[in-house]
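Go through this:
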Amino acid sequence: MNAQVLNSSKTRLLDAALTVIRTQGYAATTVDDICHAAGVTKGSFFHHFKSKDELALAAADHFSQMADGIFSNAPYQAASDPAQRVLGYIDFRAAMLARQIPEYTCLLGTMVQEAYMTHPAIREACDRHISAHAGEVAKDIAEAKRLYAPKAKWSPESLAFYTQAVLQGAFILAKAKQDSKVAAESVAHLRDHIETLLTPTTKTK
């Protein structure tokens, strides 16, 4: 089997993991499920990964690289005003809610909810990637804070993590209710709150 075919089968397994785990959860997902979704044999799976846990670690990296590409090329990145980039980021996340639930929910959040006590390596990988994404959001928040809320006591890092907390919580509610409307409403409240924090005429906190 040549390198191109091997790389193709590995990518198919990783892409399948993103879909299957976000659809039915990490614990309920089996190697057979992923192989079936990827259209590869179990022999091919075990050529690339020793276990489902090893696949999960690779899938976390794969998901994060995919997300990095999407967000780094998103339209809001072109805004010159950092506050508009922050609000544009939230609008971009809100627009994703028009998709099916498994298509917009976070693989990292899905896995860490189940694995944080039982699979330390998976928890650490999810934490690393979620924190890295929040760190990118914090860069624009920090620039906007310097311009519009320099005396505010909150930190850009804490506000960036707050955005992720609301988004992950919104995903959980959407799953629970099987309806994206509740998630969209939560994200709208998030936008209103951050817009208030970054509006110069409002009282800083």
The CA atoms of residues 64 and 129 lie 6 Å apart.
